[in-house]
């Protein structure tokens, strides 16, 4: 259950970005004609149908080894883009696309907090997808949220200023916009109230969003996107909280609904979010923000749909917040001794006590974003979890 906050936190954003003076047509022109092969700069014979050869933009992806970043790399690679990834030497590279006879992902070692390695990784690239972030509901050292989520973005923005990067697609999060308590459904115009933050992750993403807004006003070609609670097939990590919650539920470590069931989140399937990112590259206007959210629903509804799809019983009880909160405090105390990040923590419980509902109408209109229903997304994810042996039904 603690998994809840882990990825609920994995998405954030706030404040309206200043629209940069770039025409829509220019924003959509991300394939250029060339007589040179972009992958190796070697002359290529002209086509019999066209004297020019299509050359795809070279793309740098940060956070490529995460649940979302790995899927994004696969999609870009399949579309023919030369892709470079900035990864740490300790990173698990299993989520990256395997090399083919024609091409391979270019791996560069470094870190978004190490400016020189980041600057070197940007060399020769046209587009950056800045997906890298620390996504956890709680850490014993909260400074990591700010060094990576805030400092990392500052470094990327500086690298864009010093290179010939044409567009930066920045992965923010619904958390950056703040909660929508009172039954409201927010859009990109909402600004985080900053009266309180449920987690340090939320605070770091809200601060980073202000930095993105300022950069856009200064002419940096940045397009921030704000996913909802991401779920779907892929890595079962803190960035895939729904999968972790389902695993807890089907293994009876989470025997009931969380709280009263009045929570509300915007659930985004990872494949839809990937398509939204690529659309932001192709069609997004620098300085504009785009919510890549999905169906607004409670975790109670998620559990009920899972029961219907798998033809299993629905939970029979509600676990009160006071019980979850007490368990969270105990888990944090144990974590300080063992060093293992807890599944449940007090910040995660705070998130569950608020509503986070958003509209993606702008992305639908300007990016042709088309999110699937929660039912369809779960119908795909549940058999995948079963095949992995993580759940039984």
UniProtKB/TrEMBL annotation:
Signal peptide (UniProt feature, chain positions): 1-20
Residue ranges constituting the NAD-dependent epimerase/dehydratase domain according to the UniProt record: 59-291
InterPro entries on file: Epimerase_deHydtase, NAD(P)-bd_dom_sf, NAD(P)-dependent_oxidoreduct
Name of this chain's protein: NAD-dependent epimerase/dehydratase domain-containing protein
Keywords carried by this UniProt record: Signal
Organism domain of life: Eukaryota
Keyword Metal-binding included in the entry's annotation: no
GO CC annotation terms, alphabetical: cytoplasm
Database matches in Pfam families: Epimerase
GO molecular function terms listed in the Swiss-Prot or TrEMBL record: aldehyde dehydrogenase (NAD+) activity
């Amino acid at each position: 259950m603690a998994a809840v906050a882990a990825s609920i936190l994995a998405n954030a954003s706030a404040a309206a970005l200043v629209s940069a003076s770039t025409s829509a047509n220019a924003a959509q022109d991300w394939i250029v004609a060339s007589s040179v092969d972009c992958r190796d700069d070697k002359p290529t014979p002209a086509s019999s149908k066209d004297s020019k050869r299509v050359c795809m933009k070279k793309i740098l992806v940060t956070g490529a080894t995460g649940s979302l970043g790995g899927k994004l790399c696969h999609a870009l690679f399949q579309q023919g883009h030369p892709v470079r990834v900035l990864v740490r030497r300790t990173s698990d590279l299993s989520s990256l696309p395997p090399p083919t006879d024609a091409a391979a992902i270019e791996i560069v070692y470094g870190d978004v907090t190490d400016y020189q390695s980041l600057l070197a990784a940007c060399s020769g690239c046209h587009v950056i997808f800045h997906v890298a972030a620390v996504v956890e509901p709680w850490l014993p050292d909260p400074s990591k949220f700010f060094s990576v989520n805030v400092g990392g973005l500052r470094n990327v923005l500086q690298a864009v200023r010093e290179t010939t990067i044409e567009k930066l697609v920045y992965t923010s999060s619904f958390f950056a916009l703040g909660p929508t308590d009172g039954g409201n459904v927010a859009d990109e115009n909402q600004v985080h109230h900053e009266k309180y933050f449920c987690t340090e992750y939320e605070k770091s993403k809200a601060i980073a969003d202000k930095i993105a807004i300022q950069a856009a006003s200064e002419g940096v070609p940045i397009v921030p996107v704000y996913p909802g609670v991401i779920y779907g097939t892929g890595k079962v990590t803190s960035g895939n909280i729904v999968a972790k919650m389902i695993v807890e539920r089907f293994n009876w470590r989470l025997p009931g609904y969380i709280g009263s069931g009045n929570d509300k989140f915007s659930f985004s399937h990872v494949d839809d979010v990937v398509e939204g990112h690529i659309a932001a590259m192709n069609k997004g206007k620098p300085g504009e923000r785009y919510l890549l959210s999905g169906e607004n629903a409670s975790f109670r509804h998620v559990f009920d749909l899972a029961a219907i799809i798998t033809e299993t019983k629905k939970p029979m009880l509600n676990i009160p917040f006071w019980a979850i909160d007490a368990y969270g405090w105990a888990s944090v105390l144990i974590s300080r001794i063992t060093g293992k990040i807890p599944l449940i923590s007090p910040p995660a419980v705070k998130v569950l006590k608020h509503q986070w509902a958003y509209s993606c109408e702008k992305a639908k209109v300007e990016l042709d974003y088309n999110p699937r229903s929660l039912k369809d997304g779960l119908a795909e994810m549940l058999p995948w979890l079963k095949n992995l042996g993580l759940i039984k039904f």
